[in-house]
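re the bet — no i am not wrong, look at it urself. input seq straight from the record:
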Amino acid sequence: MNKKIGILYGKERSFPEALITRINQKKKKGIKAESVQIDKVMQGEESGYAVILDRISQDVPFYRAYLKNAAISGTAVLNNPFWWSADEKFFNNALATKIGVPVPKTVILPSRELPDDTSDESFSNLKYPLDWKAIFDYVGFPAYMKPFAGGGWKNVYRVESKEDFFEKHAETGQLVMLLQEEIVFDHYYRCYCIGRKHVHIMPYEPRNPHHLRYVASFNPGKALLKEMENIVLKINNNLGYEFNTVELAIRDGIPYAIDFCNPAPDADLQSVGAENFEWVIEHAANYLIEVAENKNPKTGNLSWGEFIKNSSLGKALK
């Protein structure tokens, strides 16, 4: 039986097109890759794809519903659309504190403006004012404020003082924000992780303009490379993501996980550069083929992380 690998994507072109080409160039018997094609979605009916790599459903609710229907009907969807619907950055930081991964001190804040269809009475359990002194003493200044979910460096603020914080927080509307300790780093890395086993560590300079962030000369030694690889694998094994990036800031020799909820990470050729692009294309192609070949139509084909599996069995995190 032929097995189709579908790539679901939005405006990006270089990564999905090159990935489809690479998979098909490998000429694996019975396996073909293509852009996902949707003309109808009937409840409980198969999608026609053995595997779908999701690059866009975080921004398109219709696609998220399509993927869940595909998953329950036998498709292996990467990343798991049920888990990704539930996951967010503050939870990931909290999980990191329980599995021994250093992270910046972080607090979550209620939105500055009331959410739609709520009133003051909707927040009977929220004390006002918040204990701002304890919050600021814990995080310290300077600090970063950013949305608790989402990515792409949108709505990210650097705040210098409590006065600066209140001024900038007033601009955030209904966004739920994180306030996070600033890690003044010596060097910084962005790490691809594919299949929870393949790790690619890239020097990265987040202070550069977006198109120059992968132009960095950081050069870690073997011991630090191994430590970062172990952290990346630990994070992704616990979260269950098969495609993700982890950003690590190195301060005084210690890698701090800064951002590790990127299940549709940037993979554009012009952004990441030719060498990184080639690594991602080759490892993504091989992994998608592996998933397609091992897909079992009689069992579930979604990946669940160790956090979910251990919690359901009453086991401790590790």
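see?? The domain at 106-181 is CATH 3.30.1490 (Dna Ligase; domain 1). told u. also The radius of gyration is 21 Å. so pay up
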